[in-house]
Write a structure and sequence with these properties.
With 241 residues, this protein is of the alpha+beta class. It has ten helices and six strands, in the order αααααββαααβαββαβ.
Length: 241
């Protein structure tokens, strides 16, 4: 087994094909989770990012090999020196441009796309590891990235559903109904420690958007709080953010 891995770490056609295919496969598997959730970057994006990073790393190894063998005399004659590893470093910084395009702030003051952007960055790092033939690190990184995107959201939902702090986004048809919402929160023992109010105009219709940060008097399902507030007059939409 050790000799087999040593062979795959060499720069030959078999190892290069394996590295590129592994990068495409594992990047695609990670991106498939984003695809199912209809995120901006999905199956093909993750696949291409991981594959491109792997090819870049293989190119770095190829350049380093050629500079020490076939091109050594020519480069020594002109006195030129280069660091082939710099290509991989540019992938890490360059992937930020793609990641930025997946992040947006919604009208509810929610930041969306951070998981997708960080997943792209991690997939690029995984692709670099595959391209370098670091199979052990690649496998560990792949498993952890996959678990972070599939298992951890379930754990996060369980923890947050029982948390005593919550942010509630409410759309009201008029500013006059804002007082009723605040009074109902206080009557039910909710501690209101922050409010953000914005007014939107849709033609002749004016709408009030509010983001309320509250602390519950005890642990209880957040759906009960939302159901209670949704019965108030003037509520157009309500959700937890």
């Amino acid at each position: 087994m050790g000799n087999y891995f040593a062979y795959l770490r060499q720069l030959n056609i078999e190892s290069m094909m394996l590295r590129i295919l592994l990068a495409m496969l594992m990047g695609g598997v990670i991106g498939f989770d984003r695809e199912l959730k209809h995120r901006p970057a999905g199956f093909r994006t993750y696949m291409l990012v991981a594959m491109g990073a792997a090819v870049t790393m293989i190119l770095s190894q190829y350049l380093d090999l050629m500079l020490s063998t076939g091109w050594h005399d020519s480069f020594s004659a002109v006195g030129r020196k280069t660091d082939a590893a710099r290509l991989g470093a540019q992938v890490i910084s360059g992937i930020g441009f793609i990641g930025t395009g997946t992040i947006l702030v919604t009208s509810r003051n929610e930041v969306k796309g951070l998981t997708t952007a960080s997943g792209l960055w991690a997939s690029a790092c995984m692709g670099l590891a595959i391209g370098a033939g670091f199979y052990e690190g690649m496998f560990i990184g792949f498993i952890l990235i996959l678990l972070s995107m599939t298992l951890l959201p379930l754990v996060e939902n369980v923890v947050l559903s029982g948390a005593r702090n919550m942010n509630i986004y409410i759309e009201l048809d008029s500013i006059e109904n804002l007082g009723g919402v605040v009074n109902r929160m206080k009557a039910d023992g909710l501690s209101l420690y922050d409010i953000e109010i914005a007014r939107e105009q849709h033609g002749s219709i004016s709408q009030i958007n509010g983001l309320f940060s509250v602390r519950l008097p005890k642990k209880q399902p957040h759906t009960e709080i939302l159901a209670m507030l949704s019965t108030l007059d003037g509520i157009i939409a309500i959700d937890e953010v």
